[in-house]
Amino acid sequence: MGRGSKGWRTSMTFGPSPALGAPSGPAHQSAGAMPTIPAPRYPPGVKIVYFGSGAFGLPTIRSLASEHELLAVVTQPDRKAGRGGHLTPTPIGAWAAEHAADAPLLKPERVGEAGVCDAIRAFDADAWVVIAFGQKLSRALLADRFAINLHASLLPRWRGAAPINAAIVAGDRQTGNSAITLADRMDAGLVLGQTRREVGRTQTAGELHDLLADDGPALVADVLARHAAGTLKRGTQDEAAVTLAPKMTKDDGRISFDEDADRVRCLVNGLSPWPAVTVQFRGQPLKILRADAQQAGMERAPGTIIDPALGLVACAPGSALCLLDVQPAGKRPMPWPDFARGRSVQAGDRLEHE
To answer: Which of 62, 94, 181, 272 is most deeply buried (CB count within 10 A of its CB)?
Structure first.
């Protein structure tokens, strides 16, 4: 898990959050416009059509395949990747090809096309599970189907493509997963259940991604069980509390040491491992992959290395960033002390933000 893992806790709070409130306002109108969810009709062994592309869904699809029946797996088409530009399947596509050979593997460019829609709806499934799929499911596709979406935030906070990054960058002390219905607007469905997890000070987005992914199977299993028992409750989201988490880009990895070190800490950890905060050290790019922050008595020009052994870098007056893990260009990630010894880093050396 890496540095900062001690003290992480998870609370499996199943069912809609009481803070979501009763159905009212725009959120209720949007969710209510979707097709009515049918009454459960299946035994404990559930027939599933799984929609997903990203690695976030791997623990859940493994769990579903072991406990239920995968009728089909729908994922994004293979894309060119790497320096050679070879066609590469999605993480879910690669897993399904190896471990779910009996389930048809569909890779449509547009899942809403008439022929594709008909083919998917032809599967006699009890439930559809959607996790990091990457395409919108149309009304025609969803009509009269029970479908749940697993999203990596405590909705309505952090709707969008990068909720894990956004939670750490914003300094949230707690985040989690939400299981929701699908709605016309992005991540605006009814909340069927949530799990919660504390965010550590030096926890990176990559580490939090994996922890939340591992929380997914229990939440999805709980929602499916409550739906089968007829006890599934649905909570609306408070539209006044909505925050957005757009897709991250390399431009987001720009920092200024003129800011308070705690703000820089959140940005560094929230963008690690990608797109990563990159600075210049002796004219060469250096990625900062993990950092902490502390108060500093001596004031130096922002970006100045105060203590090479501890990796302390001056930020806004009275604060210092503590470098923990870095990655030089063309090298593997390494602890800061290893980098400092190898490059003979001295007090007074500077990091320049790009």
So the answer is: 272
**pLDDT per position as a tens digit, 60-78:** 999 999 999 999 999 999 9
**Of residues 167, 170, 241, 242, the one with CA closest to residue 205:** 167
Q: Which residue in the block uniquely carries the two structure tokens 């690690």?
A: 272
Residue boundaries of the structural domains of the chain? 10-241, 251-353
Distance CA 219, CA 236 (A): 18
Amino acid at site 342: G
Per-residue pLDDT at 12 = 43
Map residue 209 onto helix, strand or coil: helix
Against a cut of 0.70, is the pTM above it? yes
Amino acid residing at 35 = P
Tell me the backbone φ, ψ of residue 319, rounded to 5 degrees: -135, 155
Contact between 206 and 10 (Cβ < 8 Å): no
Name the pairing type of β-strands 10-11 and 191-198: antiparallel
Phi-psi region of 258 (alpha: psi -120 to 50; beta: other; left: phi over 0): alpha
| DSSP category for residue 213 | H
DSSP string, 80-91: EETTTTEEE--H
**Looking at the domain covering 251-353, what would its CATH class be?**
alpha beta
Is the peptide bond prior to 23 cis by the omega test (within 30 degrees of 0)? Answer: no
Dihedral over Cα of 99, 105, 111, 117: its sign:
negative
In 3D space, the residue among 124, 149, 56 whose CA is nearest the CA of residue 95 turns out to be: 56
pLDDT at 38: 52
Looking at the domain 10-241, which fold is it?
Rossmann fold (3.40.50)
3-state secondary structure (DSSP) of residue 119:
helix
Nearest to 1 by CA among 200, 288, 165: 200
